[in-house]
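Lecture 7 notes. Example A: sequence first, then its structure tokens.
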Amino acid sequence: MTSSVLSYFEEYFTPDCDVPLSGHSTGQIARHIHSLLDRRGTCQYVAQQPVGGLRADVFVGHSMTATR
């Protein structure tokens, strides 16, 4: 069994919760990734940037590199 951590912006995706931007492509992608990881084992969701203390076989996070 694989343990995973998914970290995304909570405005786009939160498991089992309706969020304002869930219909955007970022939210749809996060929902799909979470579903795939959850089927392979346990998937812990962490909103935004995790600080530490997480242990997992797989980490998937969303990074914003563009500046305004």
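Example B, a different protein, same format:
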Amino acid sequence: MSSMANVTGTYSVYNATELFVIRTAFWLLAAVNVVANVLMIMTLLRTKRTVFLIILTGLCFSDLLSACNSPLFVKIILEARNFKLPRFTCGLATTVEVGTSIVTVFQVLALTLFRFNTVVRSVPAKRQMSTHTCAHVIVSLWIVSLLLISPYPIAIRVSETDTGFKCGMKKNAPLLAKGMVALGVTAGIFLPTLIIVGLCITIVLFLLGRKLPATTPSADKLRRQMEKKAVKQLVIVVVSFLVAYTVDCGAKNFMFLKRDGQVSDHTTLTLALVAHGVLRISECLNPFLYYYGSMEIRRGMKKLLCGRSSSSETTIGNK
């Protein structure tokens, strides 16, 4: 274990140099995350609406909110022994962290279902839902996510002892609040993620098992092009999501299984920082992946940054 040092009176498993490096890294991640997602949101709001781009807008908003919450959440992890901010901030940071995770999972699931219908069922985007309906669906997902995290401020407590500080479940919390917290994690994160994985596997098996005709008619060729764009957009969003959340869930599950003193404080906090950092890195990369995956976004970004009118736009999000 790293030597423990008193840093500005705070008990820590990291020395002063390690704390400086960790804080600087996460502040830089948060800054890049905010700038990248703000630029992407401005671009998407100025770009012609498609179902795909509307879902990306919702994802950027959740990533932006998570980035703004990141410094507070990291402060809770680093100052676990002597947290000096008001008590409510512990519950606030945890609630926002879980809430943004839930709404992100919901929106990725919506995109996966959308592209599943395009690839496997060959349903054109315009026949699945209108952009107006898609906007209502995204707003509804945010509302459901808020409902799922509403019990967190009631159920979370600040535990201060001689050996540590942490956010945990109140032993005397209302049973309904405890049940809603468990439901929020299960129904809001784990189950939708399993559905996303299942749908992606089905798409892969469908594409691998399909026999292409020797001569492709023009209509069939157009459908193949739409499938290719749909799969490309799905890969850009889902792969980044699955990698980040797999690492995050793996680290948290390890900490949960080894919580009875079987691992050191240094290992526990390092795993928490790694899990949080992987999610933030993924959110930083997402706007760049969106930029790569859509011609409309590239044109919109150039127009936003350079003030130039883009040439004739090709709608790829709904094809």
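Note on Example B: Residues 5-207+218-306 form a domain with the Rhopdopsin 7-helix transmembrane proteins fold (CATH 1.20.1070.10). The first strand starts at residue 5 and ends at 7.
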